[in-house]
């Protein structure tokens, strides 16, 4: 989810690249860099921190010759995935010492270690820890005067995703762009071409743009654009008119970041899973855990700590680990864990879940668990964050920047990764390879399930319109659907200010049922699976007390549909993976209720994106 800008044309490139980076910085980047080209020379400036840091570097450079004359350049703001956010890891990256090729990249190169080993054997040395430098060095090694040809050959060796802009010292004025899984937009001006990772960096210059397709590569020289496929076949791509406002462009055309991030979930989950599922071996590949099967087998308990949404994801991990691994698993609210003198030791793996990696209570729990000798792993979205560094080992979510305060794609990526951890533990114990393959495939199927739910947004809006006027409501579920009820209630309360509470469905009759009447709607998780019949009985108890009811049901389940006033359907799938589509349905339900109520969805009152105080 990095920001990329490139320019070639009549104007001086540096100020245009810097303003483009600033438009992309809204997603909270951690380092930035620029490369400028003139006749037979390319210079780079890179700096950790905000775009303003590299801007200062450029403006204070005593040699302004290239800066004030270059008409071609590339620029990048980094959302770290491989290697912490440092100056040396910042893009652009280049070939060997006298660069023939310089490039910027957005995406994940899965086979970068293999490629790096091969290039090191050829005598190339690397400066950074990034996957991108491997691509730069590979392209540089293949370069024989034709950048389009060299990058085509390099990308045909790459597994993974990319959005790329590259330059070559010997081809001033030329940019070569390519995409697979990470967008590249080509903005067409009267005497210039501007490329970017999203339209927000282009539309202040032109609204006439070409969106490359996956596996397209294009050579751009001024206003000449030559588009090929990675099999070198020439193709044409129609230009289109970008009719968004600059502010809408930053949200990808969505009204709020939250809705954009809800719809990003299929790709975000694919990135979280990418390269981590081995269906053939029926196992997960989680090198970041840095635990051999024997060490996994010797761990007696999984203990998950977190707060808020991350805590809800941890409850899914508790159920799945017990369910599939036959081992003890617990989830604890991080502050509670830290202060209640927990019994924890060297046979425990403590997994700290945190999107931001900066939540004070979760960090404190990590430190306390370390003091007691536990193994620690982080499950974090922000690379190089405090919890990630304190944990020392772990798995990055690769969910991309999550801007909206209400967490959506982080939760579904957390659950997907936690299911992979459960798979890995299970296969180090009694799970067979066949069962492992089924589990691995079920995890790999999650993005498609989310896509199915997203297609039903219009139906969900119709249900949300019926419930936007209430000030209180219950969410109920049992088994894997209990954490879904918790997450659904948290989403609704934090963005719509409706007093939403979640209960284990069996808990209703132990007190909460006293609150049921026609003003207390109940949202029930009724999708097919263990315990669903009992929750159905709870729904009948609610209806008998005039409570309006919404059921999250399995597509085609007419019995469940007839038991509720309104239904939201999710695709049939195993109970443990149904956590994700059921949650996405409730994300949309909550979002549209908050929208109808006119709430400040991305920045709800009283809330912060990261709670860095206890
Ligand atoms: C969830 O929508 C909230 N924004 C909040 O509960 C959040 O999940 C919690 O503060 C934990 O944040 P973290 O994942 O960054 O540690």
**Largest sheet report:** 8 strands, antiparallel
- Pick out the low-confidence regions: none
Question: Count the strands?
Answer: 26
Give me the CATH fold name of the largest domain.
Glutamine Phosphoribosylpyrophosphate, subunit 1, domain 1
Give the CATH class of the largest domain.
Answer: Alpha Beta
Kindly give the count of domains: 3
- Hetero groups bound? 2-deoxy-2-amino glucitol-6-phosphate
Structural class: alpha/beta
* Spatial extent as radius of gyration: 25 Å
Mean pLDDT: 93
Distance between the termini: 30 Å
- The amount of beta strand, in percent, is 15-25%
By CATH, the architecture of the largest domain is named 4-Layer Sandwich
Query: Helical content, roughly?
Result: 25-40%
CATH superfamily of the largest domain, called what? Answer: Aminohydrolase, N-terminal nucleophile (Ntn) domain
Tell me what the structure shows.
This protein is an alpha/beta fold. It has three domains: 3-242, Glutamine Phosphoribosylpyrophosphate, subunit 1, domain 1, CATH 3.60.20.10; 249-444, Glucose-6-phosphate isomerase like protein, domain 1 (Rossmann fold, 3-Layer(aba) Sandwich), CATH 3.40.50; 451-604, Rossmann fold (3-Layer(aba) Sandwich). 38% of the residues lie in helices and 22% in strands. The chain has an eight-stranded antiparallel sheet. Helix 4 crosses helix 5 and helix 11 runs parallel beside helix 15 (409-427). The longest helix is centred in the C-terminal third of the chain and has 22 residues, at 575-596. It starts with a strand and ends in an 18-residue tail after the last helix. The relative contact order is 0.08. The mean pLDDT is 93.
């Amino acid at each position: 989810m990095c920001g990329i800008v490139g320019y070639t044309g009549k104007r001086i490139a540096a100020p245009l690249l810097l303003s483009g980076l600033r438009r992309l910085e809204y997603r909270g980047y951690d380092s930035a860099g620029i490369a400028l080209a003139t006749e037979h020379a390319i210079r780079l400036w890179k700096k950790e921190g905000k775009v303003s840091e590299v801007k200062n570097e450029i403006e204070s450079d005593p040699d302004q010759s290239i800066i004030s004359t270059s008409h071609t350049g590339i620029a990048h703001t980094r959302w770290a995935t491989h290697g912490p956010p440092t100056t040396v890891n910042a893009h652009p990256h280049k070939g060997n010492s006298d660069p023939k090729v310089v490039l910027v990249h957005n995406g994940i190169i899965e086979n970068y270690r293999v490629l790096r080993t091969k290039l090191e054997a050829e005598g190339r040395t690397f400066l950074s820890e990034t996957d991108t430098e491997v691509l730069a060095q590979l392209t540089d090694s293949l370069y024989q005067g034709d950048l389009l040809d060299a990058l085509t050959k390099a990308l045909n060796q790459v597994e993974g995703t990319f959005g790329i802009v590259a330059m070559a010292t010997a081809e001033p004025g030329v940019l070569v762009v390519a995409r697979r899984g990470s967008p590249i937009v080509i903005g067409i001006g009267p005497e210039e071409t501007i490329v970017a990772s999203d339209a927000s960096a282009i539309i202040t210059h032109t609204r006439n743009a070409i969106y490359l397709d996956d596996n397209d590569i294009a050579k751009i020289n001024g206003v000449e654009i030559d588009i090929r496929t990675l099999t070198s076949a020439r193709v044409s791509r129609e230009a289109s008119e970008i009719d968004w406002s600059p502010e809408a462009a930053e949200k990808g055309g969505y009204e709020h970041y939250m809705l954009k991030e809800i719809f990003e979930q299929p790709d975000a989950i694919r990135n979280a899973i990418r390269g981590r599922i081995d269906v053939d071996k029926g196992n997960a590949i989680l090198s970041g855990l840095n635990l051999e099967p024997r060490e996994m087998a010797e761990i007696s308990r999984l203990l998950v700590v977190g707060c808020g949404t991350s805590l809800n994801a941890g409850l899914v991990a508790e159920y799945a680990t017990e369910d599939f691994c036959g081992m003890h698993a617990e989830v604890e609210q991080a502050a509670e864990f830290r202060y209640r003198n927990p019994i924890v030791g060297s046979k425990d793996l403590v997994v700290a879940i945190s999107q931001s990696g900066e939540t004070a209570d979760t960090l404190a729990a990590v430190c306390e668990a370390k003091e007691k000798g536990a193994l620690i792993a982080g499950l974090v979205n922000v690379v190089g964050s405090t919890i990630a560094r304190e944990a020392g080992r772990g798995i990055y979510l690769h969910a991309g920047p999550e801007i909206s305060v209400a967490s959506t794609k982080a939760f579904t990526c957390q659950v997907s990764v936690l299911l992979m951890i459960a798979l890995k533990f299970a296969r180090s114990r009694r799970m067979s390879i066949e069962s492992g393959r089924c589990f691995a495939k079920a995890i790999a199927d999650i993005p498609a399930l989310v896509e199915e739910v997203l297609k039903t947004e219009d139906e969900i809006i119709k249900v949300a319109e019926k419930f936007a006027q209430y000030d209180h409501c219950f969410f109920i579920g049992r088994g894997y659907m209990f954490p879904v009820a918790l997450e659904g209630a948290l989403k609704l309360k934090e963005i719509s200010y409706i007093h939403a509470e979640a209960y284990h469905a069996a808990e209703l009759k132990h007190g909460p049922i006293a609150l049921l009447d026609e003003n207390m709607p109940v949202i029930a998780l009724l999708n097919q699976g263990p315990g669903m019949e009992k929750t159905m009985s709870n729904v009948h108890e609610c209806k008998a007390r005039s409570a309006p009811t919404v059921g999250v049901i399995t597509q085609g389940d007419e019995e469940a549909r007839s038991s509720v006033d309104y239904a939201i359907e999710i695709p049939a799938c195993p109970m443990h993976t149904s956590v994700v589509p059921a949650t996405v349905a409730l994300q949309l339900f909550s979002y549209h209720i908050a929208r109808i109520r006119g709430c400040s969805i991305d920045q709800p009152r009283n809330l912060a994106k990261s709670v860095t105080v206890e």
